[in-house]
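Assess this today:

___
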Amino acid sequence: MNIILFCLPIFGKAVIQKLVDQGTPPAFIVGPAREHPSFNEMLAIAHSFNLPVLIFEQNLTEKSFNERMKELSPDLIMVASYSHIIPRSIFSTAKIAAVNAHPSLLPNYRGAHPCFHVVKNGEQETGVTLHLLDDGFDTGSIIKQVKYKLKTKETMGSLEQNIKPVVANTIADFVKELETSGLPETKKQAVGSYLKAERVKLPLDTIDWDQTSSQIDQLIRATNPHFLIKTQLNNKDLYLFSGRPVKSTSNKKRVGEIEAIDEQGMRVSTSDGAYLVTSLTYPYYWHGEPLGLFELGLIQQGECFSCKSE
């Protein structure tokens, strides 16, 4: 089967490896545009499997790229976590189907950053959806869905790593099924209002300590490791990397107040209790446990973080 795989490094290597191992390797790989940060990495991955790469400069509407796709006339176009919208002029060149593997249970979490929003919203379950490409964004008819239960303290980064084999296995199984039985029956996505996974806009807002400790924990885990979420103390931005909800130990607390700093971390008051920060960065001075900052005299018990952006 003549397969052209559109992918990025995040899932690309695992998908290629699975397809190669089962004897259905892609004929060509299409990575991101040449100016994309992961262009060289994707090129290296494809070359490590001795697979040829189709290259475009800036976007998929380029005449030379479209002409090449028509010449190749693939049986299947397969997409795995891609950074460019694939136009009809491209996906219509597939003789059997053009299929996207999206890391959520559609129609929930359509968009560029589903793993971020799934963790931020405290979801217990997500998954992978195979769907036909159409003119919308993650709106095509569903072929197959595979569920994944989030682990305790899942971060955006861990979710991407843990769901990677689910994406690879789901694509590989589909390709095998397509070879033996043809394209399975599809169903249209339900119409209505669903949770979105819009592209994360940077810089992110500062932490609102008036939220619950669970909401703050979910936000910090959702930003780890790709984005940075900050809080402000004495006009300085501190970036938080890890922690957990705990009980408050203060009787007269202000939301955002540092209740205690010890070997366990830094306990900060929230609307419903407290959040124990266990890893943070203080500009130019510190990256690690809060106790080191305390010993340097840069943070003190009783000081209060600003709750929202100025």
About this structure: The helical segments are 9-21, 39-48, 63-72, 88-91, 114-120, 156-181, 213-223, 290-295. The mean pLDDT is 95. The two ends are 57 Å apart (CA to CA). DSSP finds eight helices and 13 strands in the chain.
